[in-house]
Structures are given as C-alpha cells and as structure tokens.
UniProtKB/TrEMBL annotation:
This is Cupin. It holds the Pfam family Cupin_2. Residues 105-130 are annotated as: Disordered. CDD domains: cupin_Bh2720-like (cd02223). InterPro entries: Cupin_2, Flavonoid_dioxygenase-like, RmlC-like_jellyroll, RmlC_Cupin_sf. Residues 30-99 form the Cupin type-2 domain.
C-alpha cells in the first residue's frame, strides 16, 4: 500500500517535478512552479490529467480558456487539450497531479523546468511500457 499526506509531501518538495508513484494505468506527481514560472504549453494526446493545487496562486489555460487557480482548486485536462499553468503569485505554486496513463519516467525527479525539458527532449523521461 502506498500512503501519502499529499499536501505535505507536495509542499516539502522543492523540485519542479517529482514522480511519487507509477502504476499500470495512472501516475502521481508533485510539482513546484516558481514565481513567474509555468509548466509550459503542451498537449497530452492520449493522457487525461487531474491537477490539485496545494498552495500559491496561478492561472490555468485550457484550450484558450483562462481561470484563476488557488489552494484547494482542482482542474481536469482531458486528453488532446492544449494547456498551461502559470504561477501569477509571489510564492511557489504547488500542486499534485494524476496522469492516466503515466506520462513520465518512473521515479523521475527534475529540479527545474529546464532540466525537465532537457530530459524530455533527450528521450530520458519516457513512461514505462506496459
């Protein structure tokens, strides 16, 4: 059994992206977006994503629609939808997200967005093959 006090785990992680758990059909990831930072506009063609915000304030942009997000908010990004999340506050925007199916390499830790982007471009952040 895996058990997390997820808000605490997310707030204690200084990393841009940290994969906590990977299953056959889903993946749990915590993220910390620095002030002025963003996840970066992207589309997951065959992956649904659910994001829950733990602290900070930001903006969700999904298929051109914008919505403010803050602690306690949950945003669903259906597969195939262009999306981005931007930190608009003075403190880190901290969240956890569930991908279905997994999107990242099992156990991946990326300290910065630049490190995460480089790993993806180099093919070093591929999800496990079931």
């Amino acid at each position: 059994m895996e058990h997390y006090t997820i808000a605490t785990v997310a707030e204690e992680s200084p990393d841009f992206r940290r994969v906590l758990w990977t299953g056959e059909h889903t993946q749990l990831v915590v993220m910390t977006i620095p002030p002025g930072g963003e996840i970066g506009e992207e589309v997951h063609e065959d992956i649904d994503q659910i994001l829950t915000f733990v602290s900070g304030i930001g903006e969700a942009i999904i298929s051109g629609q914008k919505k403010k997000v803050a602690q306690g908010d949950l945003v669903v990004v259906p597969a195939g939808k262009k999306h981005n999340f931007v930190n608009t506050g003075e403190n880190p925007l901290i969240l956890y997200t569930v991908y279905g199916p997994p999107e990242h390499a099992d156990g991946a830790v990326h300290k910065t967005k630049e490190e995460a982007d480089a790993a993806e471009e180099a093919g070093k952040d591929e999800p496990p093959i079931s």
